[in-house]
Each structure stands twice: as structure tokens, then as C-alpha cells.
Design goal:
Layout: E1 2-7, H1 8-25, E2 28-32, H2 39-49, E3 64-69, E4 72-78, H3 93-96, E5 103-106, E6 119-126, E7 132-140, H4 152-161
Parallel strand pairs: 2-5, 2-6, 4-5
Antiparallel strand pairs: 1-7, 3-4, 6-7
The protein binds adenosine-5'-triphosphate (ATP) and magnesium ion (MG).
Amino acid sequence: MIETTLDLVALRTWGAALGALAARERVFVALFGPLGAGKTTLIQAICVGAGVTEPVTSPTYTLVQWYQGAGGRIAHADLYRIEDPRELAPLDWEDLESGKFPVFVEWAERAGTELPPTRWELRLSLDADPTLRRVRGVALGGAPAVPAPATEAARAEDETTC
Ligand SMILES: Nc1ncnc2c1ncn2[C@@H]1O[C@H](COP(=O)(O)OP(=O)(O)OP(=O)(O)O)[C@@H](O)[C@H]1O
Ligand SMILES: [Mg+2]
């Protein structure tokens, strides 16, 4: 389990590491957190790490947006407007939970019990400092461990060695 507080730069760096592994292992990534917590920001970084070169925006009107990543297709869903998990069926939810693609889902709580048992859960919350976000990451089922964000000390080290 990962639990830490990240600024925007650290969150983006962590997201890129998450995306590289998620794409390789085709992880289903469920994101939780209130409005403005940083779900889309984190997914944008995850997509960069997964090799997506096109711009990633929030798919609020389409609900599911497919991108081309380094190793194949990648799905980004935003379930904010879903009121009942039964609305997932027409969204090709079976494809999304098949394990054949990396999948990144905002407002994953809207999927209720329809989330696949093997997944990452990433929870974002606001901090008293508006430049920081608290993050928690956990791997469930057969998912690989969630990579730990680089610590301040490790990043300072990188900067001096680069
Ligand atoms: N440490 C941080 N990590 C992530 N985002 C941050 C951080 N500090 C400031 N921000 C800002 O917070 C905002 C997060 O917005 P974002 O759209 O990613 O949230 P969201 O969780 O997707 O919201 P919504 O539920 O409305 O889609 C961005 O404007 C981002 O620049
Ligand atoms: Mg969003």
C-alpha cells in the first residue's frame, strides 16, 4: 500500500511510472476522489507513461475514450454521470474489465460491484495546502504492486546526478 502527499510535479512523475507499468501489465486502474482532486491530472500523466502521444482530456461526454498507447489501445473512462452500474453495459464494460487493455477509470465508485477484482485503487484527496494532494494506492487481486512515488530525497539525488 502506498500512502503519501505529492505536489503537482511529483504527482506527474508518479503517474508516468504508474502508466508504464499499467500499460505493460494491462492493469485496470480505478480512481477515486472528489471534484478537483486531480484524477484527470493523474490520468494524463499515466497516459504519457503508457506511451499516449495525443492530448488526453476528460471524456465527460463520451464516458469512454480510447487512445493508442505504446503497446496497444488504452481506455479512459469518466463515470461521473453514471447513476446506476447497469448503465455500464452499453459502454463496452465487458471489454474494459476483460484484462485485455489497460483501463483508467475516474469516479470508479459509480461502477459499484462491477469493478474487476484484479485492479489498482488510487484514492486522491485534497490537503490543507492547495498545491498538495494526498494519494493512496493499493493493488487488489492479482494486480502488480503499485509503484511507490519517488521520495524528495531520491528526486534531489536524481537532480544532482543528472
Ligand atoms: N499536487 C497536485 N496534484 C494534482 N493536481 C493538482 C495539484 N496541485 C494543484 N493541482 C490542480 O488541481 C486540479 C485538479 O483537477 P483535475 O481535473 O485533475 O481533477 P479531477 O479529480 O479530475 O476533477 P473532476 O472530478 O472535476 O473531473 C488541476 O487544475 C491541477 O493543476
Ligand atoms: Mg476529471
